[in-house]
Amino acid sequence: MRRGGRRAGALAAWLALLALSAVPAVYLNSLFGYLAFLTLGFAGLLSLGYAALLRRALVLEGLDTAAACLRGESAELRLGVRSRAPLLCPRVEAVFSLTDPLGEAGERTAVSFPLAPREGRTFPLTVRFDHVGVCRAGVEELRVFGLFGLFSLPLRGEASCRVEVAPRVHPLGGLPLSDAARTERQRAQVRTSAESLDYAGVREYAFGDPIKTIHWKLSAHAAGYLTKQMESYGSSGVSVLLDMESPPYPAGTLLEVCDCLTEAAVSLCAAAREAGMEYELLAYDRRGEAVRWTPGDLTSFSETVGQLPPISTAGGPGAPELLRAEGRSLYGQANLAVCTARLTEELVQVLLELRGRGRFPLLFFVLPGALDEEARRAALRPRSLLEAAGIPCYVLPDAGALDGGWR
To answer: Which residue has the higher pLDDT, 346 or 221?
Structure first.
């Protein structure tokens, strides 16, 4: 607003002088009387024409199209501007902006600089990213000024960079995980009933069932896929369910909740891997489809983060739906770790049902510390049912609590 005001002020001053210069032209009615008016008018036209020539001659030479970093770290970005004309560019003004994972515009920084004829400049940008998700950094506006600074024109073209900010991994030692069942590695060495024709029956396909258990002949005559019904041989690994839905907190709190949720999820995967257990991450992607990942490099989680939707308060499908689908699978993991900011009665009921079926659920509940005491008590009311059933429930105010205060 201030930059636009300065530009408008310069133009208003020129128009005022032009109007004053017309006074002697009217009264003297001679070439000498018109001299000031013609000089100021010519200066304005020259400034506008000069700016138009420079705009055609200036080109943007990229902000990097993609970058990645961990939360709390800085990414190095570069912006290049080059003049292709043998003209002095008195002033170029670039406005850099940052968009957070929720799509909200953040900090804006203006930089002004001149350019010599056929000169190119590169500006290294060091931007710190404090929240997990997909951010954008780039040039919001680029203007070139003509002579005398009277007129400026916007430069065509865009320069923006997509930055995938990955969550940090926190050590979560001492998790109450069950390893009573045999691991999938051990089971792969022997022939299973799923590889033979001996099975107890069929049922509808459930999310997470192996493809080899689908009864293709019967499925061809049914409305959907049918799975062979066999004795459960669930793995002693960990399924981490990440719920990206949240209560309607303010934007800043939502970003902190997202940081805590994603870092709890990836840290749980890392803890399972360190314990030699199978692990997988279950979530809804940006298309609203339930998917599962097995992240390989947990220190650079950017690829998975890029597929996750931004945290939402729309009340879409979340942890209960994923838990039900995972609970119906006979081949799912024995441990079900849920990372959510919504501790609803429905979620508690599903967790209790899974515990009754012999699964081992545990809950990481993100509850911002900024809430008042009454709101906290209301949010934690269903927790007593989980504790009575022996289901661990860890309350996290923010991602920093994962460094030692999660117990």
So the answer is: 346
